[in-house]
Amino acid sequence: MAALAAAMADPSRIAILCALMDGRAWTATELSAAAGIAPSTTSGHLTKLLGNGLVRCLSQGRHRYYSLAGQEIAGLLENLMGVSMSAHAAPTPRTPGHLRHARTCYDHLAGELAVRIYDALLAQAWLTSDGLALTAAGRAQLLQMGAQLDPRPRRKACCPCLDWSERRFHLGGDAGAALLRLCLQEGWLTGVPGYREISVTQSGKRALRRLFAIDAD
């Protein structure tokens, strides 16, 4: 734990990790620009992060791309953001309104909208009561909607992920990632590459109302 904390205990490395929270793979040059540091120092920071299992590197042709090592690292960063931004006197969120409403948490949806969807999944018995698995009905419904669920995921098929701005759960795991992909592919949600903010389209508002009885306005 001390070694992991030490690897993160640098503003430049934190900036790199936060940039990778959008779920994309970035080059070292892109990360240096995002973190506001010189390219000559970026490699040292990335080496530190790689050595402690926080990021991974993929070589493709002449280029090397970096991404978070996994969803558990994204969850760790989300929790750290919540602790660092919360007031000690009261748990009133300081999160900017546009991010609190809807954002990405690595490869799944987070924020107020994601929490409401999670509550709807529980209410409709698409999830088990502990949120650790899809029910047979839930799996069938997601597949019918067009979600591409991995029959043999290498990570948790489904899990509750604590939302740091709402202090409640949203849907993580393979099911959470599949649901976000579906919403983006159908044009129900839109985002800007490199940013975590998510917007709901008019067709998305209709879909959320139809599927989950949620008023996204």
Give an account of the 3D structure.
There is one protein chain. The chain is α+β, with helices and mostly antiparallel strands and 217 residues long. The chain has two domains: 1-72, Arc Repressor Mutant, subunit A (Orthogonal Bundle); 92-212, no CATH class. 47% of the residues lie in helices and 17% in strands. The strands form four sheets. The protein has a three-stranded antiparallel sheet with strand order 1-3-2. A two-stranded antiparallel sheet has the order 4-5. Strand 8 and strand 9 (198-200) form a beta hairpin. The longest helix is centred in the middle third of the chain and has 15 residues, at 71-85. The model is unreliable at 87-91 (pLDDT under 50).
SSE layout:
Blueprint: H1 2-8, H2 11-19, E1 26-27, H3 28-35, H4 39-51, E2 55-60, E3 63-68, H5 71-85, H6 97-101, E4 103-105, E5 108-110, H7 112-123, H8 136-145, E6 159-163, E7 168-172, H9 173-185, E8 189-191, E9 198-200, H10 202-212
Antiparallel strand pairs: 1-3, 2-3, 4-5, 6-7, 8-9
Helix pairs in contact: 2-3, 3-4
Helices, by number, come to 10
Structural class by SSE content:
alpha+beta
Task: Kindly report the spatial arrangement of strands forming the biggest sheet.
Answer: 1-3-2
Biggest beta-sheet profile: 3 strands, antiparallel
How much of the residues is beta strand, in percent? 15-25%
Pfam families: HTH_5
GO biological process, one term: response to cadmium ion
Protein name: Transcriptional regulator
Domain HTH arsR-type: 1-88
